[in-house]
Amino acid sequence: MFDTNIVNDPETVHSEINNSSQIVIKDLWKVFGRDSKRVLGRKYKVLSKDEIQEKTGCVIGLREINLEIKKGEFYILMGLSGSGKSTLIRNLIRLVKPTSGSIKINGKNLTKMNHEKLLKFRRQTFGMVFQHYGLFPHLTVLDNAAYGLKVRGISKEDRYTKAREVLETVGLKGWEDYHPGSLSGGMQQRVGLARALANDPEILLMDEPFSGLDPLIKRQMQDELIELQDKMQKTIIFVTHDLHEALKLGDRIAILRNGETVQVGTPEEIVTQPADDYVQDFVRDASPAKVITAGTIMEPAKIILYAWEGPKTALTLLRNNKRRAAFIVDKSHKLLGVAREDKLEELVNKPEKVGKIPASALRRVPSVGPDTILEDMFSIVTKNQYPVPVVDKNNRFLGVVTTDQIFESITPTEGEGNV
Ligand SMILES: Nc1ncnc2c1ncn2[C@@H]1O[C@H](COP(=O)(O)OP(=O)(O)OP(=O)(O)O)[C@@H](O)[C@H]1O
Ligand SMILES: [Mg+2]
Predict the structure, then answer these.
(1) Which of 276, 387, 412, 414 allows an S-S link to 400, with CB 3.0 to 4.6 Å?
(2) How far apart are CA 298 and CA 216, in angstroms?
(3) What is the CATH number of the domain that holds 241?
(4) 279 & 341 share domain
């Protein structure tokens, strides 16, 4: 199953480490069939996948793939059956040998490693979760989870300790002595995940891991993976056919067709700016409200006032701008609340002079973060008479989103290819 060819130069390359990208794939081609390299010659290279197959008998698995994946990124591969998703994963882990091009991981060139180095590198770096779990039916859950560690020569005691730990992480404490056959599909996939995690891999490769599960279990597994990833911060490359899964899990999505990347983008970019009809077909059912974020559509607030500017200045500004309320911030731009015209009037008309606008005169309003999706804002905008303030983690004021903006951004725009 493994590619055992020793490739020319066993040295790994450290010189081109790109700090932000953990995986750098350049001009990667994988052609299946006899004498596959000839397909890369000028005569065939320009032809379509079907034409190449017809003329040479060779099948294009991947064609000129260029991708960069960041450390800690949740990266999705999508595309129709046969588009090359599994082939890309297999090339990454070098279960198949690229026909040409390079794959660098942490600056190390996988395409130039000899077999021995490759085996070691693969075991240290990758964890793999398959669609059909790939568990050994005759081994217990514990032994399945510990399998990768056994292959690495870890002592029984140490590997069992680690395997128990990861089984607990995936919610299977108490199931250690059972055999996979007595577990449900979802539980078996947890064992698969535990086995991949036991090695503490930097990169987790998941090829349609949840596609065999019932919808409810699938959703639950997705939620758990999100939670786990929050803690683990691994680089995950995840293959799926399911757009909703891709949008829910992915930081970025690459869409493949006939072995080529058609589009790479955030879920929001893919849904709102599909590169062509093929991508458009994928995202047709996607709801923009699930991917567009407050940060993308927010606008600067019309009036922002500092608390120390005082009620009189505030009132003048409001009237000059024909507004009834303004957002008030402190000196580090943290949002304090909304000051309404009538409250400011009250303060101005008080016999004693009021310097700063007091907190008691401010109305607290619900705010959202820049990553909040529109769907999660509906209930706020419908109840709220003010634009919704967008604030960062430190409550610093970034901008506002109005009801109009929300509905505008989820309404199809004719002729622009937007949804
Ligand atoms: N070992 C192989 N020998 C010949 N052709 C292959 C081999 N593996 C894959 N291919 C071809 O490469 C192309 C990409 O296949 P791949 O399995 O990567 O697709 P996929 O996107 O994973 O599809 P699916 O969604 O069905 O899993 C297909 O045309 C396939 O026929
Ligand atoms: Mg596949």
Answers:
(1) 387
(2) 34
(3) 3.40.50.300
(4) no
Q: Give the whole-angstrom CA distance, residue 100 versus residue 38.
A: 11
* Mean confidence (pLDDT) of the chain: 87
Pocket test for ligand 1, best of 3, 28, 32, 256 (most atoms within 8 A of CB): 32
Q: Give the torsion through C-alpha atoms of 366, 371, 376, 380, to 10 deg.
A: 20
Task: Examine residue 8 and state whether it is found in any structural domain, yes or no.
Answer: no
Q: Quick check: is 393 in a domain?
A: yes
Same domain, 246 and 342: no
For 370-411, write each residue's pLDDT tens digit: 989 988 998 888 887 888 999 999 999 999 998 888 888 877
Residues less than 5 Å from ion ligand 2, measured at CB: 86
The DSSP code sequence of 143-209 is: HHHTHHHHHTT--HHHHHHHHHHHHHHTT-TT-TTS-GGGS-HHHHHHHHHHHHHHT--SEEEEEST
What is the three-class DSSP state of 267? Answer: helix
Claim to verify: residue 221 and residue 311 sit in the same structural domain: no
- pLDDT, one tens digit per residue, over 242-274 is 888 999 899 999 999 999 999 999 998 999 899
Nearest-CA residue for ligand 1 atom 28 is 82
The pTM (predicted TM-score) of the whole model is: 0.78
Contact 357, 309 (CB under 8 A): yes
At residue 233, φ and ψ (nearest 5 deg) are 55, 45
Q: Are 154 and 272 part of one and the same domain? A: yes
How many domains would you assign to the chain?
Answer: 2
- Does 218 lie in the same domain as 88? yes
Nearest ligand 1 atom to alpha carbon 87? 18
Atom of ligand 1 at shortest distance to CA of 256?
A: 21
Phi, psi of 327, deg, nearest 5: -80, 135
